[in-house]
Write a structure and sequence with these properties.
Rossmann fold, six-stranded mixed sheet, 18 helices, about 20% strand, elongated
Amino acid sequence: MLKSLSIKNYALIDEVELEFGPGLNIITGETGAGKSIIVDALSLILGERSTVEEVRSGTEKSIVEGLFTISGNKKVQRLLDSSEIEFGDEIIVRREVNQKGQSRAFVNDTPIPISQLKSLGDLLVDLHGQHEHQSLLRPETHIDLLDDFGGLDTLKDNFRVSYNELARMLKELAEIISRRDALKEKSELYSFQIKEIDLVNPQPGEIGELESELRILENSEKLYEATTKLYEILYDSESSIHDQLVVVRNQLEDLADIDEAFGKQKEECESAKAIVDEITRFVQSYSSRLNFDPQQLEEIRERLGVLVMLRKKYGGSLEAVLEYREKIGKEYSLAENFDDEIHRLEGNVEKARSGLSDIAERLSSKRREVAERITRSIVNVLAEIGIERARFEINIGNRQYGAADAGLKPLVRLGNDFFETTGDGFDFVEFYVSTNVGEEPRPLARVASGGEISRIMLALKTILAKSDRLPLLVFDEIDTGISGRVAAKVGRSLKNLSGFHQIIAITHLPQIAGNADYHFRVEKIVKGKRAVTRASRLSEDERVLEVAKLLSGEDVTQASISGAKELIGLK
């Protein structure tokens, strides 16, 4: 719902603040006063095109700001989430246009692209009349309106799940088929590489282990000399460390017999001797195992050479070589078994397509039933609001594919025929209407008269009101070319529709204005030698006077006052 609209320096408006309410909001005023300027300003914050002419002469920029309540609107929430804009019960939408015609848009003071502003506007307001913001004139919306009215959401959701799954399967199948020839060309290379890697049979960490072993073998003579000398120092010389520690220990024993304070030092010496003995045994054992084997040395060097070659050729490490081997092994296996894999996937695709087609056929049948109900109802409503003998049709069509052209598309198949399919089914829905006797129905988007369009929209919205989710409807020129009798019916239709949506309607007719829940008057005044458009919400007494003027002109009579009260519902 639009709670308030603030307009500054826009066309003839210097500053206007309007607070709208739920239900039916009526705007009246003399021709040329600027009623449509307010609708134009509203369309600006819905993402419509801006021009430099909109900026009031002598000012830096135009600013239009709207406060909307959006509680529970999940579509708006998803859009705001995608722009990282905080979602609450209300949002402030602002549009600024400077003297150069440059435009900026903000939602809750966060800048957003105009394209995104238009997407947001499409979720908040449906504006009908001579303006472009008309959802019902866009054929792509018709299928959703039909499904919403018929309560087909569950069936359509089931279809969409099946459609997405079939699309996923077909994508997988297409990828495998597209890879088949390339893989077959590479299969010889893969075969050679697999044999080359498997012949070497590298093991994780093997290069490090072999390099360590090579280092020992290449330095075996040095190791032998060093360990032999070390053994001599530790144990096998006249003044070996072992013998010296034995002497120290014996001295400490003698001293400990005299003073117990040396007992701990004697224990430390025993520990040192034990450590030296352990080192001596290790050195002696290591030295005895040293064996210089030229053949083993050459084998290690050859093995390292082969492993390093593999490492350089296939990834920089043995782990990368092994990962590559696993990858090409799978590719090679797939290349060798393509026919079986493709046959398996094709079977899954046909099963999924069959299930999708069953749901699509049921969905299409339901749509045709719903279309008949809507058609009858809309023709009756059109007659009530002055478009008598109108014809309204809902065209549900399909686009057929030949089997040869079907390819790997997620199409519905009925018998041997394939049909173009989207996430909504294989139906393409468009509303057609004829408002003149003898004329065949034409697409709704080609209806010429602005006022006629608005009344057709009113009829459609009246029928579809409970299922349509848009919170605000704006009707401009809805009373063009209609009589007082029809105007009363249009007024009642608007009043009934306002029970489901907030409505803003511009009118010249008292029969429509009398139904208002909130009534606004637009007038043009002269301020400082310049024309200025003013707008204000009317009190009850002001409403009576305004409706009376619509009945009798500027010369308000008691009869017109009484008539106005009767139209408004006052005693």
